[in-house]
Specification:
Blueprint lengths: L11 H4 L1 H21 L11 H4 L3 H23 L6 H10 L4 H28 L4 H21 L9 H22 L4 H25 L4 H28 L11 H11 L1 H8 L5 H26 L7 H21 L6 H30 L5 H34 L18 H25 L4 H15 L5 H26 L6 H19 L5 H15 L9 H24 L5 H21 L6 H18 L4 H30 L4 H15 L11 H19 L3 H23 L1 H4 L12
Helix pairs in contact: 4-5, 4-9, 4-20, 5-9, 5-21, 6-8, 6-9, 6-12, 7-8, 7-17, 8-9, 8-18, 10-11, 10-12, 10-13, 10-14, 11-13, 11-24, 12-13, 13-16, 13-25, 14-15, 15-16, 16-28, 17-18, 18-22, 19-21, 19-22, 20-21, 23-25, 23-26, 24-25, 25-28, 26-27, 27-28
Length: about 750
């Protein structure tokens, strides 16, 4: 008799048909994997997570906007409007991820619509029978809107809704003016129809999005606090390295400044969501700006530590405690944790730093006034005192930042604090943006007139829309390239919808069901940053290419007569942005250097120098522009980032020297070298016939002269002022010396355009 064996539950004898089914599915899985990977390892599909595993907020945005768009489309069809697709398009143009952004964009979009309608009225009324002149003024009008938009506050991005107001003016002006060119006697009806579509879309989107909001004010305040903590997390590693004297740590964290600028621009949206507020947004902006000053203070400290005999044992011990405090600070500020223990620990650090700085000064006074004088000991004590003084200033700035942070997350009765948004106008860039848009639109109009293309009106209209949207961006060629990708996707999808699917629905409910999935996909793509611009094109042109109507359907002739001008318009705009006044990063960086030298001269010698907040704002803007600009050579970009931070540090120290001179506490012998250095800086051009360094040498001579005076000074208050001036002068000298390649404007600085 055969021996008994354990029964294998997976054996074919026991499983029969289920085993065959299992093998079948395993074979299918193997075939699919080989088809996807070519027989290699399984492919990573992280690039499609936005589609098959979207974030809850992204999916909520897509669902909310899809519902709003379909409702707006349904109402427009119910009212039997002539072009109901514009109502759905407006919803996608206005809808944003947060309530504050949506409301801000809706307001500026409505403002832009009114301005565009009025300008279109004027144009059609003035020259309805002059085709070439008519197209010229269409181009000039959109160019003027781009010019004004470039000068408005905020970054040149798609999320700057002040600029969006001018963009809305541009494409509203173009659409109404071009539609009215064929029927100038119907311009009022055309304009009112467009205004009805846009208003309907805005009202529906605003109403529906308000239904999806819960505890909006508290969540907005929490977001302000989270923004500060996030920015602080990025700054802490660099600050800890600067405490140890590593000045290059700042260059490895340029994203900190981009984060600060982005979050500062988003404060206004949180203010909208909070409704009635007590300047929490102003405190949030001030707290974020204080982090930038912290980085500058850290760079000053790192500069002084590198001076020989500066980091004594007292400083090393206090720096270690400060680094430990900074390391734990972001965690202690998260959530609803009380702020008092944090401020108490920081107060102990500040008190110890002041006490150590005072003790160091007392020992220096004893060494200087009791012969025999130990010169080496006195110099070492003086330098250690300056480092401790700078560390105390850094801790004071950190305390200010935390206090502003606390005020931003809690209502302060009778608060009158105000920290406005700064506006820095670049007239040259505004002119280039305006000229680029005007020439592109005028050339499109010439093509239309020269070819007598029956559908050239659509071609020119799409060109005008793209120019109005992208001419104010810093990289319009790359933006239109992404826009082209989205356009190709939507053209392919709408080909299937128009020629196959859309011929069957006979009621609105079925139409909405057909459009829901494509719109939902577009919304989720927009919420994923790498696809945002492509998704904008997809979402905007989907309603246009579908063109739902109460009477009839879009046939293949109408579809191709719309899709072809759209595709050619995208190609034409991308080509024009690349050949006519293309954005040159090397030239922009060169202009930035020249502007920095101009600001240094102003800070040193002008009767009205820039204030500290303006200095911080301008340099943070420079950081953001450089980070977004990129460079083929990482060394060049790194040095430019270091040069911008160095210039901010010099400008702030020039303000401190001016304040010391205005107080009049220093004797004339001490004032003279400072004034000579400031006069030299006032003539600072960066070009010395190949001899760079006069201003740096003037700062070094002022340091040497002031150091001699400080050793023999017996008045304690005067000595404190001298030490403060000495610290600022040493920082200026070191920054000019360390960043010679940046500040020497006779050097092309490795930019290919100037080498």
């Amino acid at each position: 008799m055969a021996s008994s064996t354990p029964t294998d539950p997976a054996s074919p004898q026991e499983t029969g048909f289920p085993r065959s089914v299992g093998r079948f599915f395993q074979a299918v899985a193997l075939i699919v994997r080989q088809a996807l990977t070519g027989g290699g390892a399984p492919r990573r599909l992280d690039g499609l997570r936005w589609l098959y595993a979207p974030d809850a907020l992204a999916f909520g945005y897509a669902l909310r906007t899809t519902i709003s768009s379909l409702i707006a489309l349904g109402i427009a069809l119910w009212w039997e409007l002539g072009s109901p697709q514009w109502a759905a398009l407006t919803v996608w143009m206005v809808a944003q991820g947060t309530r504050g952004k949506s409301i801000a964009k809706a307001r500026w979009h409505m403002f832009g619509m009114v301005v565009g309608i009025l300008c279109a009225f004027v144009l059609v009324g003035c020259m309805p029978q002059s085709p070439l002149l008519y197209i010229f003024w269409v181009a000039v009008g959109i160019g003027l809107f781009c010019f004004i938009g470039t000068l408005l506050p905020g970054p040149a991005t798609m999320t700057n809704y002040r600029i969006h107001g001018m963009r809305a003016s541009g494409f509203t002006y173009a659409i109404i003016a071009l539609d009215g060119a064929a029927a100038p006697d119907q311009i009022f009806q055309i304009a009112m129809a467009r205004a009805t579509y846009i208003t309907l879309g805005i009202v529906v989107e605003t109403t529906i999005s308000s239904l999806f909001q819960y505890q909006l004010g508290s969540r907005a305040r929490n977001r302000l606090a989270a923004n500060f903590v996030e920015a602080l997390k990025g700054a802490v590693p660099a600050l800890r390295s600067l405490l140890a004297g590593d000045r290059r740590a700042v260059l490895s964290s340029p994203g900190v400044f981009s984060t600060i600028a982005t979050m500062s621009d988003q404060v206004e949206f949180a203010e909208i969501e909070m409704g009635t507020h007590q300047h929490e947004g102003d405190h949030a902006r001030a707290a974020l700006a204080a982090i930038t000053v912290l980085m500058s203070r850290g760079l000053e400290l790192g500069t002084l530590i590198n001076v020989p005999h500066s980091d004594g044992p007292d400083y090393q011990q206090l720096a270690a405690r400060t680094a430990s405090f900074l390391n734990d600070l972001p965690t202690r500020l998260e959530g609803e944790q009380p702020i008092n223990p944090v401020l108490a620990d920081l107060a102990h650090l500040r008190a110890d730093s002041r006490q150590l700085a005072t003790a160091c000064l007392e020992r220096e006074m004893v060494a200087a006034t009791h012969p025999p004088v130990d010169l080496a000991l006195e110099v070492g004590l003086s330098r250690q005192g300056q480092v401790l003084h700078k560390l105390s200033a850094l801790l004071d700035e950190l305390s200010l930042a935390i206090e502003q942070f606390e005020m931003s997350r809690s209502t302060q009765p009778h608060d009158q604090f105000h920290y406005p948004m700064r506006s820095y106008r670049d007239w040259r860039m505004a002119f280039y943006n305006s000229l680029r848009a005007s020439v592109t639109i005028f050339c499109a109009g010439l093509i239309w007139i020269a070819t007598a293309w029956p559908d050239g009106l659509f071609f020119m209209m799409f060109v005008a829309i793209v120019c109005a949207l992208f001419s104010t961006l810093e990289k319009p060629a790359l933006a239109t390239q992404s826009f082209l990708h989205g356009t190709i996707c939507v053209i392919g999808l709408c080909c299937a919808l128009d020629l196959w699917v859309m011929a069957r629905p006979s009621v609105y409910e079925t139409l909405a069901l057909v459009l829901a999935v494509p719109m939902l996909v577009g919304g989720m793509a927009f919420a994923w940053a790498p696809l945002a611009l492509a998704a904008v094109a997809y979402n905007l042109f989907l309603p246009i290419l579908v063109s739902p109507m109460n009477e009839g359907r879009l046939d293949e002739i109408m579809y191709f007569n719309t899709a072809l001008p759209l595709f050619l318009a995208m190609m034409f705009c991308m080509w024009m942005y690349r050949i006519f006044l293309p954005v040159d990063p090397n030239g922009l960086r060169w202009d930035m250097r020249v502007d920095i030298l101009r600001r240094l001269r102003r800070q040193a010698g002008s009767a009205r120098p820039m204030s500290a907040p303006e200095v911080i704002g301008r340099n943070v803007e420079g950081f953001v522009r450089l980070s977004g600009m990129g460079a083929d050579n990482a060394f060049v970009l790194e040095r430019y980032l270091g040069g911008v931070l160095s210039s901010m540090t010099i400008e702030l120290n020039l303000l401190r020297l001016r304040s010391i001179l205005e107080r009049g506490a220093l004797p004339d012998d001490a004032n003279r070298p400072i004034r000579l250095m400031m006069a030299r800086m006032h003539r600072f051009s960066g070009r010395y016939g190949g001899q760079y360094g006069r201003t740096a040498r003037a700062a070094g001579e002022a340091v040497a002269h002031l150091a001699l005076l400080e050793r023999s000074e017996t008045n304690l208050s005067v000595r404190v002022e001298m030490l403060s001036a000495l610290a600022s002068l040493r920082v200026i000298e070191a920054e000019l010396r360390e960043n010679e390649a940046f500040f020497d404007a006779s050097n092309p600085y490795l930019d290919g355009a100037f080498s």
